[in-house]
Fold:
Amino acid sequence: MNKPLRIALTKGRLEKDTVGLLEKIGYDCTAVREKGRKLILPVPDGNLEVVLAKANDVITYVEHGVCDLGVVGKDTIMEMQGTFFELVDLGFGRCRFALATKKGSAFYGGYGVKTVATKYPVITRNYFESKGMDVDIVKIEGSVELAPLLELADGIVDIVETGTTLKENGLEVIEDIVPVSARLIVNTVSMKLRQQEIESFVELVEMNID
Structure:
């Protein structure tokens, strides 16, 4: 048997959803579910090895070839970019990028340059450039909703699922930017060297997506 295909999973909800998908395929993921503090875990009957990592690191590990495959949100792919193949939209982890402002405030109009706070400066810059707008972007690491409330920014670009957090903080979505979901990515060299194994795995994945 060849060495296991190594697949990096984004810790948290995407990890749980991916493990659910692997179990639906028929793999025994007991070791992953009972992981304790371990970060590299075997799925022996699938000839897989699961690596648990933060989203940005999933892309880094796949890009550098220490993992053959990865499961990561489209948001991270768009922000980090990088060199790898994006193979499958897995359909879970659905949410969207949106532009939000304080309720009732006018973002568009006027002559001044608007300030936008976000955790995703690349996506934000690309979005406003596509609209022909020049904006000042402020990178925020924590709760981006604070920026308009503290009058640091005119609006925010962030991931929105239900919109509840925005509403509770007096903000509202004024524009949807792009839908997001989990994607299966693959290292470019692995795709050449282990094409048959990867294509067989991808076929099983596609057959079991809801």
Notes: DSSP finds nine helices and eleven strands in the chain. The chain has a mean pLDDT of 94. The domain at 95-179 is CATH 3.40.190.10 (D-Maltodextrin-Binding Protein; domain 2).
